[in-house]
Amino acid sequence: MASLERYYLRHMDGVFVPSRTPRLFNGDRSAVLCHEVYGQYHQYQWRLFSGHSPTTNRGIRDPENTFRLVQHLHDGKTREQVKTLLRSTISSASDEECERYIDLAAPLLTMMKTGVPKNQLMTRSLLRWEQGTIRDFVSDFFKESPKLSYERIRLPKIFNAWSIHKVGGINISFTDNLADHLLLTDDDSTLLIFHHASFLECHLQPFPAPLYPADLVHKQLSTIALLLPHIRTTPNWNRPSLSICGTLQAHDRQIERFHFWRDRLVILKQTYDDTTPSSLQQWWYDRRNGVQ
To answer: Which domain of life is it from (predicted)?
Structure first.
C-alpha cells in the first residue's frame, strides 16, 4: 500500500500542484494541502477489496501492480485494454479477479464508487463502468444538464451546513464518493457532503488530459465553501480536508453559477425551506423569517 500512496503523493506534490501554480482555491499556498486523508481512503478501499474479494494470487496483492494499474487508467486505456494488460502481467489471475482488481483501482483514481466488492450490501444505486476509458465514464456521469427550475432559489449567507443541521434538523454525513455529493438520503433526513478538498485541489491544476470535465472541480470546491465556510463549525466537522475551501462572496453564491450541482442544491434548499422548527433550540437559531 505504501507504494501506491507514494505514487499519489508524488502526483499531488509534483504534477497536480506544480510550483508555478502554488496558490489554492482560497488563495493559500499549496503547502497547506493535507494528503493524509487520501491515504486513509486508500487503506480503507484496500481493506474492502481484501476482505470481500479474497485471493491467494500474489500478483493481485502486489502494491506495485496496483500502482501500474492506476497509471494505465489515468493514461486513458479502456477497461478491456487494462484487462488484457493484467492478464499478460499476472497470467494466473482469473477474469473475476481482474474485474474486481480494476474496480479497486478506479475509485483510487476518481473517488467515485464504480463497483462493489462481493457480498457487500449496497444502500444506493451502483455506478457501473463496463467499457471505454475511465475518463469517458466520468464525463458521461457529469454531462447531464440541470433540469429543475431555480429562478426563486436564493442561497443567502446563513444557508450553510450549520443552519441546515441546527435549524433544518438535517444530519450532515461526509462521504468518500464524489458521485454522492449533496445527495439527500434516509428520507431527506441526511445530507452527504464529499469532503476530500485536497484531492480536488490536485485536480484543479491544469494538465494535458484532465480527468474531470472543465469547471467541475472548481464548482465542487465552491459548494464546500458554500456549506462549510470558516464560521460556526462543530468539532465533528473540523476536518483538515475541509479547511482549505474558504468562504464565498455574495456573487459566488448565486444559484446560476452552480451548473454541475445545481439540481441537488435546488432540492436541498427547497427541503431546508420546507422544514419547520420542532424544538426550542431550532426556534432559537431559526433566522429564515427575520425576528421570531
So the answer is: Eukaryota
The contacts of residue 134 (CB under 8 Å, 6+ apart) are 73, 74, 79, 106, 109, 110, 114, 211
Q: What is the 3-state secondary structure (H, E, C) of 162-228?
A: HHHHHCCCCEEEEECCHHHCCCEECCCCEEEEECCHHHHHHHHCCCCCCCCCCCHHHHHHHHHHHHC
Q: What is the pLDDT, as a whole number, of residue 22?
A: 47
The letter for the amino acid at 95 is D
In this prediction, residues 243-272 reach a mean pLDDT of 89
The pTM (predicted TM-score) of the whole model is 0.81
- Angstrom distance (rounded) from CA 110 to CA 194: 12
Quick one: pLDDT at residue 291? 47
Query: Alpha helices of the chain — where are they, by DSSP H?
Result: 2-10, 36-52, 63-74, 79-89, 95-110, 134-142, 161-166, 197-204, 216-227, 262-274, 280-285
Residue pair 16/202 in contact (Cβ under 8 Å)? The answer is yes
Distance between CA atoms of 195 and 112, rounded to whole angstroms? 13
CA angle 133, 241, 208 (to 5 degrees): 35
| Strand-pair partners of 192 | 173
3-state secondary structure of 58: coil
**Three cell numbers, residue 148:** 429543475
pLDDT at position 253:
93
